[in-house]
Write a structure and sequence with these properties.
The complex is a heterodimer. By secondary structure, chain A is mainly alpha-helical. Helices cover 73% and strands 0% of the residues of chain A. In chain B, helix 5 runs parallel beside helix 12. The chains are: A mainly alpha, B alpha/beta.
Chain lengths: 451, 373
C-alpha cells in the first residue's frame, strides 16, 4: 500500500489509529505488527512471507550473537557474517540477479522486486552489527522485533531507521497530543509534497523524457522537473513516515535537510537521504578505514562507498554511473575544490552545486545509454534552443516550478509563527486538495461510448 | 497550546473518518452519468482473490469509485490546475470563449497503412458490386478552430492525417473534403464548446458537402430549433471545467418521422430516430438516434436509393438531413457489427456506401479491417 492512496488515507490509517488508541498499551505492538503485515501484504501478498522469514532469521541471529558475545567474540563474529551474507544474499538475489545474468547473455528470472526490500534489509542489518559492536542489546520479544522491521511508516521508502535508535521506543514510548499534532502537520506536509508537487511536476518530466526532438529549453525544464519530482516524492515520503511515526509515539531521525540549498557536493550528501549516506558511512566507509589510513586510501574508500550507494538505487548500470559521478566530484572537492571555494562567493558555489546535481539526475533518470547521450546533447542545444512546444510547457509549468523552487528552501519557516493560528484550516485545505488530486487520478470517464 | 493541538488533531481525524464513513454509509452508486460507466461495487472476499491481489485491486477501485463528492472533487482539481496557469486538464485544452477541446495525437504510420489497406479492400468489393463508395473524414475542433487553442498547444493536426489517407486510397473511393467545408465557417457555432461532436450546424455543412459529392442537391439550411440550452458534453466531464457555460443543442431540419428498426442483439425492434426523453438526461446528444447499435435501418418514406453509412457518433446528428434523399438509410457500426460488409451491401441492395467518421475515431479505430470483409 502507498500513503498517497485513498485506501490508505481513508481506510487503513483511521482503522489503525483508532484500534491502536483503544487498545491497552501492552497490546499496541501486537496490533501494530498485524497492521504492518496487512499494509505490506496489500501490494505483495506473497512477499510478506519473505519479510517474515527475514524478521525471523535476524531475530534468531540477534539472540545467538548476544549469547556468544561474552563467551567467544569469534563465534559471534561468524554468526554476524553468516547473517549479513544471508541479508545481502536476499537483496542481491531479488534485485540484481537478472542484471548479472544479462552480463553473461543469460535470460533472467523476471522476478518482481519485493517492495521496500532495499530499505528493510539495510534496516535489519543494522541490528546484528550494532549488537556485535555492543551498541545495543538483543531484542527477546519477537513481536517487538517484527514491529520494528515491518513498521509501516518507513517500510517501503525509508528513512532507514536503525534498531538502536528505536530500541527503547519499542518498549516504552509515550504518545502525546503534542507529538500527535506535530505528526499530523508533518504527515500533511509530506502528503502535499508527494501529491500536489511531485506528481504534478512529474508530468512535465514524463512529457520531456520521450520527446526525441526536445529543445534545450524543453530539456532543461524536463530535468528540473525531475529534480523536483524526485526530491518532493522522496522527502515527502520521509515526512509522511516521520509524521505517522509521531502519531504512533515513535521519533525517527530526519532524512532530508533542504538538499537543494547546498553550496558543495559534500554538503549536498549531508542533506540528501541522510539515513542512507550515514548507513554507508557507519557500516562501510568507517570499517574500510575511512580517513584514518592515508589520503589515497580515503579517496579509494569514497569511490567504493559511492559506487555502492549508486548501485543501491537500482539494478541498472546508470545508477552505478551516477554513484561514480558523485565519487568523482567528492574526491575533487576533498582534493582541492573545497579549499578554493573558501574564496568564492556563496552564489557561485550554490550554482555550481545545482548544476552538478541536476546533471547528475540525468544519469539517474535515463536508464538507456543511447537515450542518455541524446538527452545530454539536447540539454546543450543539439535540437535548437527553444520551440513552440517548450514555450507551451514553460507557460503551463512556470507557476509550478516557482512553487517547487520556493518549497525546496526553508522560506515557509519565515512565516511559521504568523501562520501558526491557521494551521488547522490549512491542514483542512491541504487534505481536501490532496484528496481531489487523488480522486482525479482514478477518475476515468469512459468517453468513447458514442464512438 | 494544548487546546490548539486538539483542534489540529480533531480536524485531521474528523476529515479521515468522515471520508471513510461516507464511503460505506452512502448508498453505492451503480452508474455514473458524469463518467458514463458502471462504478465498482464492494468485492467478495475469498482466499483466492486475496492471494492473487485481485481483492485488493478491486477494493481500491471500490473506494475511489464510491468516494463521496467524487465529481465535485474532480472539478476542484480542475480549478486548482487553472489557477496554477495550466491550460489543460485530463487531456482537454481550455480554449478561448469557454471551449474545451480534446487533445489528439497523430497515429503512427502502421495505423495509416492499415486504414488505407482496409479501405482499398472495401473499394474493390464496391467496384465489383458497382456501388459508389464515398469517404468523409470529419476533423475535430482542435484542427478546424485551432485559433481557439492555447498558444503552441501540443496537438496533432488532423488535416495532415486526413490528407495522408485521401492521398493514398484506392482511386475508386470518392473522398469528401469536409475539412474545407468546415474551415470556411470556422467562426460559426459548428462544434459544441463542451463536447467533441459537431453541432447541427456543423453537421449541415458536412451533409451539404457530402451530398454535392454524390451529385445530389442538398436542402437549404433551416433556422435552428432549440432542443436544450443546458447541454454539457464529454469534454466537460473529462476536464472537470465546471466554470464553462453549457451548450445549446439544436435541430436544423424538419423532424420528419420515419420508421426505424434497430438490430441490437440481432432482433429488429422499432425505435424512434428522435428521443426527447434524452433531453432531460446528461447525455443529451443521444436525442439523435439514441445511442449505439450494431445496425439500424431507417425507412424514410421518401424515394431514392439505399444509403449505407458506416458510422461513428458524428453521424447521429447528421443523419436526419439525409432522410429526404434516400428511401432507406442503413447505419452500421463496426464496433458491434461483425458480419461481412460486402455481403451486407449485396444482400440489402445498397446503392451508395458512405464511410462517415470523425478523424479522431478513425485514427484510433481498431476494427477498420472489418471494412474489407
Amino acid at each position: 500500500m502507498v500513503f498517497s492512496s485513498l485506501t490508505f488515507l481513508f481506510i487503513f490509517l483511521p482503522c489503525t489509529l483508532a484500534v491502536y488508541y483503544v487498545l491497552p498499551r501492552k497490546w499496541r505492538n501486537v496490533w501494530l505488527f498485524a497492521a504492518n503485515l496487512v499494509f505490506y501484504a496489500w501490494g505483495e501478498p506473497i512477499y510478506v512471507l519473505l519479510m517474515l522469514a527475514s524478521i525471523t532469521f535476524n531475530y534468531i541471529a540477534g539472540i545467538l550473537i548476544a549469547k556468544q558475545l561474552p563467551v567467544s567474540r569469534k563465534n559471534a563474529r561468524t554468526i554476524l557474517i553468516v547473517n549479513c551474507a544471508l541479508n545481502l544474499g536476499l537483496l542481491v538475489f531479488f534485485k540484481y540477479t537478472d542484471l548479472f545474468l544479462g552480463l553473461f547473455g543469460l535470460q533472467g528470472f523476471g522476478l518482481t522486486l519485493p517492495i521496500g526490500i532495499s530499505f528493510y534489509t539495510f534496516q535489519t542489518m543494522s541490528y546484528p552489527i550494532d549488537l556485535y559492536r555492543g551498541e545495543t542489546s538483543a531484542q527477546k520479544n519477537y513481536v517487538k522485533f517484527g514491529t520494528y522491521v515491518a513498521l509501516f511508516p518507513q517500510l517501503i521508502a525509508g528513512p532507514i531507521v536503525r534498531y538502536k535508535d528505536v530500541a527503547l521506543q519499542l518498549s516504552e514510548r509515550r504518545e502525546s497530543s503534542a507529538a500527535f499534532a506535530s505528526g499530523v502537520r508533518r504527515f500533511t506536509a509530506g502528503l502535499c509534497k508527494k501529491v500536489l508537487l511531485a506528481n504534478n511536476i512529474g508530468q512535465l518530466w514524463e512529457l520531456s523524457r520521450n520527446n526525441p526532438d526536445i529543445s534545450a529549453l524543453g530539456a532543461w525544464l524536463g530535468i528540473l522537473a525531475f529534480s523536483f519530482q524526485l526530491y518532493f516524492d522522496f522527502s515527502g515520503y520521509s515526512d509522511m513516515a516521520i509524521g505517522l511515526g509521531r502519531m504512533l509515539g515513535f521519533e525517527f531521525l530526519e532524512n532530508f535537510n533542504y538538499p537543494y540549498i547546498s553550496k558543495s557536493i559534500t554538503e549536498f550528501w549531508r542533506r540528501w537521504h541522510i539515513s542512507l549516506s550515514s548507513w554507508f558511512r557507519d557500516y562501510v566507509y568507517i570499517p574500510l578505514g575511512g580517513n584514518r589510513k592515508g589520503f589515497a586510501r580515503q579517496l579509494l574508500n569514497i569511490a567504493i562507498v559511492w559506487s555502492l550507494t549508486g548501485f543501491w538505487h537500482g539494478a541498472s548500470w546508470n545508477f552505478l554511473l551516477w554513484g561514480v559521478y558523485y565519487a568523482f566530484w567528492l574526491i575533487i572537492e576533498k582534493a582541492f575544490l573545497l579549499k578554493l571555494f573558501e574564496k568564492l562567493p556563496a552564489a557561485v558555489r550554490h550554482i555550481y552545486t545545482l548544476i552538478i546535481v541536476v546533471l547528475g539526475w540525468v544519469l539517474f533518470a535515463v536508464e538507456d545509454f543511447g537515450a542518455l547521450t541524446a538527452y545530454l546533447s539536447a540539454l546543450f542545444g543539439a535540437n535548437g534552443g527553444f520551440n513552440g512546444n517548450s514555450l507551451y510547457y514553460l507557460r503551463n509549468y512556470a507557476a509550478m516550478l516557482i512553487i517547487c523552487a520556493a518549497a525546496s528552501t526553508p522560506v515557509v519557516r519565515l512565516f511559521g509563527k504568523r501562520l501558526e493560528r491557521f494551521v488547522p484550516l490549512l491542514t483542512l485545505i491541504a487534505l481536501l486538495l490532496c484528496t481531489a488530486y487523488l480522486v482525479n487520478s482514478t477518475y476515468n470517464p469512459f468517453l468513447y461510448f458514442r464512438f | 497550546m494544548l487546546k490548539h493541538f486538539r483542534i489540529e488533531i480533531f480536524t485531521f481525524i474528523l476529515f479521515l473518518l468522515l471520508g471513510s464513513l461516507l464511503i460505506f454509509i452512502l448508498p453505492d452508486r451503480g452508474f455514473s452519468e458524469q463518467e458514463n460507466r458502471l462504478l465498482s461495487s464492494l468485492p467478495q472476499l475469498s482466499i483466492e482473490s486475496v492471494k492473487s491481489g485481485k481483492y485488493m485491486r478491486e477494493f481500491e477501485n471500490y473506494v475511489s469509485d464510491q468516494f463521496p463528492l467524487r465529481d465535485k472533487l474532480v472539478s476542484l482539481k480542475a480549478v486548482s490546475e487553472l489557477s496554477l496557469g495550466k491550460t489543460e486538464n485530463n487531456g482537454v485544452f481550455f480554449g478561448t470563449d469557454g471551449s474545451l477541446i480534446d487533445s489528439y495525437s497523430t497515429p503512427d504510420s502502421a495505423q495509416l497503412e492499415d486504414a488505407v489497406r482496409s479501405l482499398s479492400r472495401l473499394a474493390e468489393n464496391c467496384e465489383e458490386l458497382r456501388v459508389p463508395l464515398y469517404l468523409a473524414l470529419i476533423p475535430g475542433a482542435g484542427t478546424v478552430q485551432s485559433g481557439r487553442l492555447p498558444a503552441n498547444a501540443p496537438i496533432g493536426d488532423q488535416r495532415d492525417y486526413i490528407d495522408s489517407v485521401y492521398g493514398q486510397i484506392n482511386p475508386y473511393i470518392r473522398s469528401v473534403d469536409i475539412t474545407k467545408a468546415l474551415s470556411e465557417r470556422k467562426d460559426d457555432y459548428i462544434y459544441f464548446r463542451t463536447d467533441h461532436h459537431w453541432t447541427a450546424l456543423g453537421a449541415y455543412y458536412g451533409y451539404a458537402e457530402t451530398l454535392t459529392a454524390m451529385g445530389l442537391t442538398p436542402l437549404a439550411l433551416k433556422p435552428g430549433h432549440v432542443l436544450s440550452n443546458s447541454f454539457f458534453g464529454t469534454a466537460y466531464s473529462k476536464s472537470g471545467a465546471s466554470w464553462v457555460r453549457p451548450d445549446t443543442l439544436e435541430a436544423r431540419v424538419e423532424l420528419y418521422s420515419a420508421a426505424s428498426l434497430d438490430y441490437n442483439s440481432g432482433v429488429a425492434t422499432p425505435v424512434s430516430i428522435y428521443n426527447p426523453d434524452r433531453l432531460s438526461e446528461k447525455d443529451k446528444y443521444a436525442y439523435f438516434l439514441g445511442g449505439n447499435s450494431p445496425l439500424r435501418i431507417i425507412y424514410t418514406g421518401f424515394g431514392g436509393g439505399k444509403l449505407l453509412i458506416i458510422r461513428d457518433s458524428y453521424s447521429d446528428i447528421e443523419t436526419p438531413y439525409f432522410l429526404t434523399h434516400f428511401s432507406e438509410i442503413h447505419l452500421l457500426d463496426l464496433r458491434y457489427y461483425k458480419g461481412s460488409v460486402r455481403d451486407y451491401i449485396a444482400e440489402s441492395g445498397i446503392t451508395e456506401v458512405l464511410v462517415n467518421y470523425s478523424a479522431a475515431n478513425f485514427s484510433a479505430e481498431g476494427n477498420l479491417f472489418l471494412l474489407g470483409r
